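user: Please review this fold.
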Amino acid sequence: MKVQVNNKEVEIIPDSTLTQLTAQLELPVQGIAIAVNNKMIPRTEWEGFILHENDNLVIIKAACGG
């Protein structure tokens, strides 16, 4: 199954959750936010949030500095 992550096509296992996707992409546990189809998904919902074919995800990583 394919989804778009920050405008890049990514192949994932069907019925993957956001938590599984973060592990597959080796993302940090803290300091990221994820929007699916232009809707921010709270971290508390990642474990149960099932991704679907052609979902469009934006992953934002926190950065230090100013």
Strands lie at 2-5, 8-11, 32-36, 39-40, 56-61. Helices lie at 18-24. The chain has a mean pLDDT of 95.
